Amino acid sequence: MTQVNNPLHGKTLQSILEELVEFYGWEELGARITIRCFTHDPSIKSSLKFLRKTQWARDKVERLYLRMKGLA
Q1: Is residue 4 part of a domain?
Q2: Domain encompassing residue 59
Q3: C-beta of residue 19 within 8 angstroms of C-beta of residue 68
Q4: Domains in the chain: how many in total?
Q5: Which CATH number goes with the domain that contains 20?
Q6: Does residue 51 have a pLDDT over 70?
Q7: Which residues make Cβ contacts (< 8 Å) with residue 20, sequence separation at least 6?
Q8: Is the predicted pLDDT of residue 3 greater than 80, yes or no?
């Protein structure tokens, strides 16, 4: 099955998160998505650990990424 219409195809969670942090910064990211890994001592590593096991949070991150890219 191809992912031609999926704008997230080929994007790793790490690259999505890094782009969001570069674009918004941790403070704004934490304001837009209120999860502790973004608001208290944030890091890529701790955020990835949380997002990989918490689907609802990952969904919010992916939706914000798509909005940032103008795809949603």
Answers
A1: no
A2: 13-68
A3: yes
A4: 1
A5: 1.10.720.30
A6: yes
A7: 29, 61, 64, 65, 68
A8: no
